[in-house]
From TrEMBL:
Gene3D superfamilies: TorD-like. Pfam families: Nitrate_red_del. Residues 200-239 are annotated as: Disordered. It comes from Bowmanella denitrificans. The keyword Transmembrane does not apply. It comes from the Bacteria. Residues 213-223 have a biased composition (Basic and acidic residues). This is Nitrate reductase molybdenum cofactor assembly chaperone. Keywords: Nitrate assimilation.
């Protein structure tokens, strides 16, 4: 699905190159299989961001996705946290990429959502199943973004619509209702005070790599309400 490639670009760090492709972007939205309401949401997102200043968009992006962990675009942050299971899950996902003939840069993490969407877009009739596998994470990010950036929330709701997975957004809203903000200066200062430093290892197994795929994980999850993920009918490929 070409629309997945487009959403991947919109969810990645904003660059000037994207702003120059406005007409192509709108054409892809119009040609997508999305229902009208989601097409309108994507058009609104594009009009708002493309008509503004790039630096403002980049600042907004940093504030949302690079401060705190609750809106991390690293899929397994929301499934496995920092457990060893996350490393094994990424190894298996990377094997799926390679089996499909795709290679990623050494510093990239395979569970970075825009990268995952790029991969899913190449899977033709299986693309919807890949989206359904991560639908609980997409729903979680959608409802968290409703409070801070409804426009970005619309991107995740569009992905949910493409997945056709039965995710109860109202139930997720109830689950996160008591969460405390993890992106405030006070919360981020707490991380610097409490976060242990790990030497050695690599990006997958929790070490200190010299380069990290954005967004950079930094915030503890002890202020977040555990999310109960909803099983989907699609075959489960992710651990």
């Amino acid at each position: 699905m070409k629309i997945l490639t487009l959403v991947a670009r919109l969810l990645d760090y904003p660059e000037a190159e994207l702003l120059g492709a406005r007409q192509e972007v709108l054409a892809l939205i119009d040609a997508s299989p999305l229902p009208d309401e989601h097409q309108q949401a994507l058009r609104h997102f594009v009009e708002q961001r493309f008509n503004g200043e790039l630096l403002d968009w980049q600042e907004e992006y940093d504030g949302l996705f690079e401060r705190g962990r609750s809106l991390s675009l690293l899929i397994y942050e929301h499934i496995h946290g920092e457990s060893r299971d996350r490393g094994q899950a990424m190894v298996e996902l990377l094997a799926q990429y390679r089996a499909a003939g795709l290679e990623i840069a050494e510093q990239e993490l395979p569970d970075y959502l825009p990268l995952f969407l790029e991969f899913a877009s190449t899977q033709q009739h299986e693309a919807r199943g890949w989206l359904a596998d991560i639908a609980p994470v997409l729903g979680l990010l959608a409802v968290r973004l409703e409070k801070r950036s409804p426009d970005y929330a619309g991107l995740f709701k569009a992905l949910l619509a493409l997945s056709q997975a039965p995710v109860d957004l109202q139930e997720l809203r109830s689950q996160i209702s008591a969460e405390k903000a993890d992106h405030t200066p006070k919360a981020l200062d707490k991380v610097w005070e409490e976060e242990a430093v790990t030497f050695g290892g690599d990006a997958i197994n929790g070490g200190c790599p010299s380069q990290r795929q954005r967004p950079e994980p930094g915030q503890r999850r002890d202020q977040q309400v555990p999310i109960e993920f909803i099983d989907t009918p699609a075959p489960v490929r992710l651990n």
